[in-house]
Amino acid sequence: MTFSKRFSRSLASCLIPLLVLPAAIPAPAQTPRTAAQQKAAGWLYKNSDVPPDTEWNFGELANGLRYATRKNGVPPGQVSIRIRVDAGSLNEQDSEQGFAHLLEHLLFRQSKYLGNGEAIPTWQRLGASFGNDTNAETTPTQTVYKLDLPNATPASLEESFKLLSGMVTAPTLSEANIRTEVPIVLAEMRERGGAGQRVQEATRRTFYAGQPLAARAPIGTVATLNGAHQDAVRAFHSRWYRPENVVVIVAGDIEPAESAALVKKWFSSWKVSGKPIPAPSFGDPVAPKDGDPANPVGETQVLVEPDLPRGISYAILRPWRPVNDTIVYNQGLMIDSLAQAVINRRLEGKARAGGSYLVAQVSQNDISRSVDGTFVAVTPLGADWQAALKEVRAVIADALATAPTQEEIDREVAEVEVAFTSPVEQRRLLPGSKVADDLVTALDIRETVAAPEAVLEIFQKSKPLFTPQAVLEHTRALFKGAVTRAVFVTPKAGEGDAASLRQALSVPVAGDASVRLANSKPIKFEEMPPIGEPGRVTALAPTGLLGIEQVEFANGVKALIWPTQDEPGRVAVKVRFGGGYRAFGAGDAPYVALGQMALVGSGEGTLGQEELDRISTGRKMGFDFNVEDAAFEFSADTRQQDLADQLYLFAAKFAMPRWDVNPVRRAKAAAQLQYETYETSPQGVLERDLKYLQRDRDPRFHTPSPAEIEKTTPEGFRQVWSRALANGPIEVQIYGDFDRVATLAALQRTFGALKARPPLPKDTAPASARSPAPTAQPVVLTHRGDDNQAAAVISWPTGGGSPGIAEARQLELLTQLFTNRLLDAMREKLGASYAPQVYSSWPLDLDSGGSITALAQLQPDAVPAFFATAQEIASDLVARPVTADELGRVIEPMRQRVTRASTSAAFFMYQLEGATADPSRLGAIRTILRDYTVTTPEAMQALAAKYLQPGKAWKLSVLPQEATGQAPTPAAR
Predict the structure, then answer these.
(1) 109: phi then psi, degrees, rounded to nearest 5
(2) Distances in Å between the alpha carbon of 394 and those of 202, 399, 407, 662?
(3) In CATH, which of 3.30.565.10, 3.40.1190.20, 3.40.50.1010, 3.30.830.10 is domain 9-30+283-515?
(4) What is the 3-state secondary structure (H, E, C) of 790-859?
(5) Hey, which end of the chain has fewer CB within 10 Å, N or C?
(6) What are φ and ψ of residue 308, in 5° steps?
(7) What angle do CA 891, 894, 897 make, to 5 degrees?
(8) H/E segment holding residue 637
(9) What is the largest CA-CA distance in the chain?
(10) Radius of gyration (C-alpha) of the chain in whole angstroms
């Protein structure tokens, strides 16, 4: 069965097949299902005693196609459809590499009921946006087509099933369509390229040497894609796109019987010739014949990538085998995960204490039904990678030699129990798209799904199995395998070779017992000092919007609270405070970067980073931090029983901040290691410099260099961030399933008990932002990545501030019109860019600084075409109104997007951020649907005329170093 977060494949990717429970641990007795029970459970639960999720209904057509349907009302009106084809890149022959993924593209190009290029506009007319609501993915083992149909009606569902059936069963695989689509796939390949992609490919070839997975990337090769022709592509389709290889999944606001009837109507007539062909063998990992059986280190590789930090990855590999997804099997997975969690907590403790590595982690994965592996990743802090690897191996060696304490295990068990309890509390909130995707995952890994209640019950009944001896035995099994393989990435040649890496992995190491966590008991909030005297409420009144109230305390803190039963078991907390980027000085950029990594970890009161972990053990708590234009923000998802302590945790950061040195030192190391990676690709350069340039080189948005980071000090960090924490207003948002009276009391004890805060200092920057001056020729930056990669950006300044929020919303419609045209021109017609995009930014907390930005990744020689095309589109939007159909294809997806989002309390509270200081935001919510959906072609033309004038455009190109002859340097300060 698939688990929820932390014990799930979403945490550890794919957990390994069953490791046999130690003989000393009794497995619960299991009674095989009768034939009648098996039939009632459905085909998914064959050979499984996992309690079926009875909300799913399973069926099979006479032609062999299987289906699963489920009623789900989240969000209301939406129906999620998934069509899974049990074939991916591992089903390809040598000459067919990339065909599974190419087919994914071709099915959207043209098919029985869709004309050439009609898929995207057709779905848009039905309210489904391209990329978000309609999409597909190809992996080594499957191809999945996805549709989230909003506002599903009998007519739109009928049409959708008709179109999807035609796509899967009768695509138009013509020579012309292949020649049109191959350049788009090659653009996608190019945009994925670079140093990171080279490392991924080298790792895949090394780890899975001798198996098809080593040579079967879903994207394919340039040669095989250029060599694709209609006969070959049709042959692949007819071989693998067969009813018995397909599962249709429907989950949403529709009765299961109605979904099943649509599946039967549109897929029952699908007939194919010939007998099904069995999937090819995916092979097994094999140790070298001349290796040491006790320590079978096989293939190793050292890669020199000048712009990447050092990194070591090694894998202990075992053959993958299908399993019966039983309760005992899942209990084994639970113990495996506990073993990982204990090791990873120890590795993190070692790093925090000043180890020779920045981060290290152990995870177990099933990879593409090809290997069952235990993977270890290490990021050394310096050139002595052998020392970092030895330290990590020593932590693992101790875990292999000595059982953990029951106290350590109990700590991890408490963490997991919270993760399993939350889905039970929030089951009615699970969207149909999520449950449909979970079933796709289960099919791919050949397992089942279970209801959250069943998962929690199995876990709770399994607690007697979670003993030190059991965890020790499972740890030892995790680190045994047929072969160990490794890759070392280094920025400098000569630091190691394959032989030295093999030697470093082969030499025995003594266990490091110093990292065992002697004290893993949770710390109690009752033991913490009070924030202060409970504060006095000076105002408490409804806002007039829904059930939201505004609370004001004598110290100036204001809060918006909204108890609602719409999201059972969930409470969200946000704390906005201070001045955000406005609060920093021109030279503070290095400390801004460090603060986003180290402010929370630097602690509070008596709590350092380890104590912060312990105090939240077994609790649903969080501590996210973000820096915005004009405010800082803490945020967390919690629940009623933990809400008061969550508020204490946030308030204590203001009342008693702590300034531990190690988190700052670690953040410095991370920032320095990350910096060089920016130059490995155009997108990296944009990540580093675009915001800085679009704010007209405002030094606060500058990405600090390693030299600038090196000059920072813990004392400087404290000075900058203590000022940020100490000044300016505080706004607290609480919404969700909580007790109003108890929460008001908790607010009084925490935020109400804070000392009155002074206003922002007089030297705080004004509430405005600069935009760069228009450019006739683009600003040119360079990168050190592949010479066929470039990026181009063009932007027009707009505005900012709450008074213009209606216009800001209309601008989003304009940018969607722009996106559709740019996508059609640069992707569909020219094949020059895989995913060009246009977006609007309008900072509500500033009175200026917004922009409309169009960007694309492409080949260097296509950069001029991008600028010309973007300016032509902008000019045309200014010169003439769009058609009613074109505007409708933008408005309907936006209407559905807003309508779906507005079913969540989080949507409204996001809109209300800052409303305690700017009450106009309350009124702006009442017009949100109208602002996003009521417009005319003439209004769009007027908006374009206001902002998209050619003389206002600012341009940037990011080109490969060799194309310019200049060294790659960041934007000048």
Answers:
(1) -75, -50
(2) 27, 9, 21, 22
(3) 3.30.830.10
(4) EEEEEEEECCCCHHHHHHHHHHHHHHHHHHHHHHHHHHHHCCCCCCCEEEEECCCCCCCCCEEEEEEEEC
(5) C
(6) -115, 145
(7) 155
(8) strand 632-638
(9) 80
(10) 29
Q: Which CA distances in Å does 54 have to 50, 366, 440, 442, 449?
A: 12, 27, 17, 16, 10
Q: What is the DSSP letter of 545?
A: S
Strand partners, 783: 960
Domain spanning 779-964: which CATH class is it, in words?
A: alpha beta
| Confidence at 963, pLDDT banded by 50, 70, 90 | low
Measured CA to CA, the distance from residue 1 to residue 450 in angstroms comes to: 6
| Total residues belonging to the chain | 973
Which CA distances in Å does 958 have to 31, 692, 789, 792?
64, 15, 9, 6
Distance CA 201, CA 196 (A): 9
Q: Is the pLDDT of residue 937 over 90?
A: yes
The DSSP string of 846-914 is SSS--EEEEEEEE-GGGHHHHHHHHHHHHHHHHHSPPPHHHHHHHHHHHHHHHHHHTTSHHHHHHHTTT
| Residues above pLDDT 70, as percent of the chain | 94
String of DSSP letters for 660-684:
-HHHHHHHHHHHHHHHGGGGGSHHH
Rounded distance, CA 577 to CA 581, Å? 12
Give the mean pLDDT of 750-765: 94
In degrees and rounded to multiples of 5, residue 229 shows phi and psi of: -140, 165
Residues in contact with 23: Cβ distance below 8 Å, sequence separation at least 6, in sequence order: none
- For residues 850 and 882, the answer to whether their CB atoms sit within 8 Å is no
List Cα–Cα distances, 409 to 343, 525, 611, 962, in angstroms.
11, 22, 17, 55
Measured CA to CA, the distance from residue 523 to residue 575 in angstroms comes to: 24
Q: Residue 731: which of 581, 920, 531, 918 has the closest Cα?
A: 918
Contact, 959 vs 784, CB < 8 A?
A: no
Q: Measured between alpha carbons, how far is residue 897 from residues 55, 78, 190, 813 in Å?
A: 26, 11, 31, 12
The DSSP symbol for 130 reads B
Q: Which CATH architecture has domain 64-267?
A: 2-Layer Sandwich (3.30)
Between CA 319 and CA 210 the distance in angstroms is 13
Average pLDDT over residues 742-752: 98
Condensed to tens digits (0 to 9), the pLDDT of residues 317-356 reads: 999 999 999 999 999 999 999 999 999 999 999 999 999 9
CA pair distance 131, 470, nearest whole angstrom: 45
Q: What is the pLDDT of the chain when averaged over all its residues?
A: 93
Range(s) within the chain of domains with CATH label 3.30.830.10: 9-30+283-515, 64-267, 525-753, 779-964
- Residue 12 pLDDT class (50, 70, 90 cuts): very low
pLDDT for res 131? 87
Helix, strand, coil % over all residues of the chain, rounded to 5: 45, 15, 35
State whether the Cα torsion 674-675-676-677 is positive or negative: positive
Three-state secondary structure call for residue 647: helix
Cβ-contact 814, 878 below 8 angstroms: no
Measured distance between the N- and C-terminal CA atoms of the chain, rounded to whole angstroms: 54
Architecture of domain 525-753: 2-Layer Sandwich (3.30)
Please, are residues 750 and 647 in contact by the beta-carbon 8 Å criterion?
yes
Q: Any idea which residue has 């050979």 for tokens?
A: 47
User: How far apart, in whole angstroms, are the C-alpha atoms of residue 376 and residue 388?
Assistant: 12
CA neighbours within 13 Å on the CB side: how many for 779?
24
Element (H, E) at 747: helix 740-749
Cα(167)–Cα(407) distance, integer angstroms: 55
Alpha carbon distance 167, 523 (integer Å): 57
Q: Classify residue 657 by its DSSP letter.
A: B
